[in-house]
Write a structure and sequence with these properties.
Largest sheet of chain A: 4 strands, antiparallel
Strand order of the largest sheet of chain B: 3-4-2-5
Low-confidence stretches of chain B: none
Helix content of chain B: 25-40%
Shape of chain B: elongated
Number of helices of chain A: 7
Low-confidence stretches of chain A: none
Number of strands of chain A: 6
Order of helices and strands of chain B: HHHEEHEEHEEHH
Strand order of the largest sheet of chain A: 3-4-2-5
Number of domains of chain B: 2
Mean pLDDT of chain A: 92
CATH class of the largest domain in chain A: Alpha Beta
Oligomer: heterodimer
Largest interface: A-B, 66 and 67 residues
Structural class of chain B: alpha+beta
Distance between the termini of chain A: 43 Å
Structural class of chain A: alpha+beta
CATH superfamily of the largest domain in chain B: Lrp/AsnC effector binding domain/regulation of amino acid metabolism (RAM) domain
CATH architecture of the largest domain in chain A: 2-Layer Sandwich
Helix content of chain A: 25-40%
CATH topology of the largest domain in chain B: Alpha-Beta Plaits
CATH superfamily of the largest domain in chain A: Lrp/AsnC effector binding domain/regulation of amino acid metabolism (RAM) domain
Strand content of chain A: 25-35%
Radius of gyration of chain A: 20 Å
Chain lengths: 182, 173
């Protein structure tokens, strides 16, 4: 059974299922639905959150807003560098190390497509360690896609030659000694 | 490219969203102070953002904390709209239409790899409307990745059997 692997019992599973459906539901409402006391529910949720199993993450719903979303597949000799960059770059929603034709996949978002393109040209296409880059623009999303976004990207004007220049958040992080691969 | 009635955000909206992302339990008055607007303004804005579905809280399982498999599946297909209707499947976290050679990207998640493999074999590799299938397993994510997985349903279902009860309800063939 799947849930045995995660060491979750019936109550945990019920709570997770309900909360995923409606994160705003109160502990009292959940308690009523699963026929347990309100303190039990509160205690369970706290336990699941503390274990890092269940998490609540506010963000914007990309299905509803006028932002471009792109997925970029990359073949690079230095995947760790891109993974680190993604933690600081406000255009990069997330990056994934993958096994397959490519070894890194990066998701980018911006109100302007040319900004995404400039980031890809400067940070990926121009680099000697990068062997292959393919960018795809997301044109439709099937269901809610809720991700935290850093609107700092709106104040950046990246170009192909200089990226975001001195404003680059990855550069700033490296100056503060927060990076390993810059 | 389809760009449907989407919402544009102004500077105040963006500030409110940023603050809520940082600390979801922040009160309207605290936000009002930080954004330098009145408390009713913030209340009104927040209501608008929440009602329209722009600002939302995602609850789910943290990929970093538990042992689950996440995978991208890329499809080259004649019938992308039909694939989009599969979004109800409890193994499919989301589906994107995409501009590239592969015109559909799916994100799959499950603690059981063999169930994902079964799903891909029976639903995509066997499908005459799909010309090419490519799967990439996610080994590591740069940022926290929260996936809403219905474990109960996943336990019950076996998508590789070809007789998955769930699918019959949602896929028109």
């Amino acid at each position: 059974m799947i849930s045995n692997k995660l060491k979750l019992d019936e109550i945990d599973k019920q709570i997770i299922a309900i909360v995923q459906e409606d994160p705003n539901m109160t502990h009292t409402e959940i308690a009523e639905r699963i026929n347990r006391s309100q303190p039990t529910v509160g205690h369970r949720i706290k336990k699941l959150e503390k274990a890092g199993v269940l998490q609540f993450q506010p963000g914007i719903n990309f299905k509803m807003v006028d932002l471009y979303l792109a997925t970029v597949e990359i073949n690079t000799k230095e995947p760790d560098r891109l993974m680190e960059m993604a933690r600081f770059c406000p255009f990069m929603l997330n990056a994934f190390r993958v096994s397959g034709d490519h070894n890194v996949c990066v998701m980018l978002a911006s109100s302007k497509l040319n900004k995404i393109d400039a980031i890809i040209n400067y940070h990926f296409r121009n680099k000697p360690e990068v062997q292959d880059v393919s960018m795809e623009v997301v044109t439709d999303i099937a269901k809610d896609l809720i991700l935290p976004i850093d609107f700092e990207s709106e104040n950046h004007e990246p170009d192909d030659e200089h990226g975001c220049g001195e404003k680059c958040k990855y550069l700033e992080a490296s100056k503060e000694g927060l990076t390993q691969y810059y | 490219m389809t760009r449907i009635k989407k919402i544009s955000l102004d500077e105040i909206d963006k500030k409110i969203i940023s603050l809520m992302q940082e600390n979801p339990s922040m009160t309207h008055s605290e936000i009002a102070e930080r954004v330098d607007r009145s408390q009713p303004t913030i209340g009104g804005r927040l209501k608008k953002l929440l009602d329209s579905g722009v600002l939302k809280v995602q609850a789910g399982i943290n990929f970093h904390a538990v042992d689950i498999f996440l995978a991208f599946v890329y499809l080259k297909t004649d019938s992308p709209d039909e694939i989009m209707t599969m979004a109800h499947c409890p193994f499919i976290m989301n589906i994107y239409k995409s501009s590239g050679e592969f015109n559909i990207v799916l994100i799959l998640a499950s603690p059981k790899m063999e169930k994902l493999d079964g799903l891909i074999n029976t639903h995509f590799r066997n499908n005459p409307g799909i010309q090419n299938v490519k799967m990439e397993i996610i080994l590591e994510t740069a940022k926290e990745t929260i996936v809403p997985i219905n474990l109960d349903l996943q336990d019950e279902l076996d998508p590789g059997s070809g007789e998955c009860e769930y699918c019959k309800k949602f896929i028109s063939t």
